[in-house]
Amino acid sequence: MIPNQVAEHHVEVCEKIISDALQKANVSMKDIDVIAYSAAPGLGHALNIGLMSAKTLAQKYNLPLVSVNHCIAHLEISRCVTDAQDPVLLYVSGANTQVIAYDSGRYRIFGETLDIGIGNFLDSFALAMGLGFPGGPLVYELSLKSKNYIELPYVVKGMDVSFSGLLTNIEQKLAKGMKKEDLAFSAQETVFAMVLEVAERAMAHCGKNELVLGGGVGCNIRLQEMAHAMCKARDAKCFVPANQYLVDNAAMIAYTGLVMHKSGISHELVKATIDPYERTDEVPVSWR
Ligand code: FE2
Predict the structure, then answer these.
(1) Distance 128 CA to ligand 1 centre (A)
(2) Rounded distance from Cα 178 to ligand 1 centre (Å)
């Protein structure tokens, strides 16, 4: 993504998206109680356009403004649309791979990727095989044609995972002429086992018996199967939100903003800002 172009795109579609959303929900601006916007983390250029639109709406309609952390919003929407009460979130998307859970007033990161996100790994792998983009669904389709597991580097360091060395290793195996479907099957088994190992250890450490998936890679059926199997083995519950709530979505920002606002949180218009590098555990969670 080229930041300038992403910003231009956001400016272009912003007004239409808001009017479409109001129309689809069959409401008008006078029905809106609070404006929530995604403040962190992410591309500064894109976040700024969201901030400007949010500020404009808040000012025009004299509404309170709430800034929301994107990663936390994944966890909150999963609690909203499933029966999960206090889950460990396995957040797996293009740019992000984190295991997050609530502990002592914060959403804490118990493990994460040391380099690229798991979705980014799948996209790069698919590209190397000439499959196209987005890679996740294409790798999954191809993986169904094989049950032949080829040993691959399994990189879990403490509570963190790493995918870049694995990507290089697979690319070398591809170049040697190993079968694409075997590699697709083996890559999925390996990276999903890695992230689920960390998620399972976080559950054991925190004494939590619920797992919820979040992020676009959570749509992967094989990951869902493996997550269910892990939870079943430790007598825990596994929740998978519908795909529209797994991928990045505006509902998660709106819902989290509403929950925060109901607890009394509201940001002064002039001080409202963005923070592209804010970490999940920097946000005091006063609404729980
Ligand atoms: Fe996300």
Answers:
(1) 24
(2) 33
